[in-house]
Amino acid sequence: MPRLEMRAKHPLAIRWCHWINFPLLAVMIWSGLWIYWANDVYRIGVGSHTLFKFFPEGFYTALGLKGHLAEGMAWHFFFMWFFALNGFVYVFYTILSGEWRYLVPNRHSFREAILVALGDLHLYKGRLPARKFNGAQQIAYTSIILMGCGSLLTGLAIYKPTQFAWLAKVLGGYQAARFEHFWLTIGYVAFFAIHIAQVVRAGWNNFRAMVGGYELVEESSRE
Ligand code: HEM
C-alpha cells in the first residue's frame, strides 16, 4: 500500500480570502438583484424577438426580490468596500508571496486547457502535468480575478457617474458600463456552476486542501 504524506497546497491568506469572498459575492449578487429589479432592461434576443428576459416575473416573485431597491443599494454600497478590500488583499498577497507563478497562464496554458476539456469529455486519455493548477485552472482563476477588477471599475462608473465621468467614458459610457457590470455578474454565476462541478469532481482531498491547507499525496509523487 502506498505511504501517504501531507503536502502544503494553499497558503492561509489565500484560503481566508477565498472563503471570505464567497459570502461577500453572494451578498453583492443578491443586493444587485434587488437593485436590478427596479429597471430590468436586459434580454437575449434577435431584433425585437426576445428569447430570454432577465428576469421572468416568476423569478422575482419566487425569490421575493421585488420592492427592495433602497435596501439593495444600501447593502450593495456597503459590502462593495469589503469585496474590494478582500480582493486587494488577495491580489497583493498573491503577487508578494510569488503564488502568482502557479496562477497566471503561460504560453502553454491555452493548449493545456483544451487537453483538460477534452480529458473531461473522455476524448483525451493522455497524462496531464501534475502541477498545482493546470492550464484550464490558470485561465479560469486569472479570468475571475480580472472579472473582479472589472466589476469594481464598472461599478464605480455607474455608482458615481459624475465624479467618475472619465471612467464611464473609458468604459464606453454609462449605459455600456451598466451593461458590462450586469454581464460580469452573469459570468460569476457561470463560473460558480463550473467551479463547483469541478470541485466535486476533483474530490475531497482537493476540497480539504482549500480548507485546511494540506493535501494527501503518495510519498513517491513528491516533486
Ligand atoms: C461553495 C463555494 C466554493 C467552493 C466549495 C470552492 C472551492 C474551491 C477549491 C476546492 C479550490 C481549490 C481548487 C483547486 O485546487 O483547483 C478553489 C480555488 C479557487 N476558487 Fe473557489 N470555491 C467556491 C467559491 C468560489 C467563488 C465564489 C469564487 C470567485 C468568484 C472562487 C474562486 C476561486 C479561485 C480564484 C481559486 C484559486 C485560488 C488560489 O489558489 O489562488 N471560488 N475553490
Strand and helix map with partners:
Elements: E1 4-8, H1 12-37, E2 43-46, E3 49-53, H2 57-63, H3 69-97, H4 100-103, H5 109-120, H6 135-159, H7 165-170, H8 174-202, H9 204-212, E4 214-218
Antiparallel strand pairs: 1-4, 2-3
Helix pairs in contact: 1-3, 3-6, 5-6, 6-8
The structure holds protoporphyrin IX containing FE (HEM).
Would you kindly provide a written description of the structure presented here, covering whatever features stand out?
The strands form two sheets. The chain has a two-stranded antiparallel ribbon. A two-stranded antiparallel ribbon has the order 2-3. The protein has one domain: Up-down Bundle (Fumarate Reductase Cytochrome B subunit), CATH 1.20.950.20. The model has no long low-confidence stretch (mean pLDDT 95). The longest helix has 29 residues. It is globular, with a radius of gyration of 20 Å. It is mainly alpha-helical and 223 residues long.
CATH architecture: Up-down Bundle
Low-confidence stretches: none
Count of separate structural domains: 1
Q: What is the terminal-to-terminal distance?
A: 20 Å
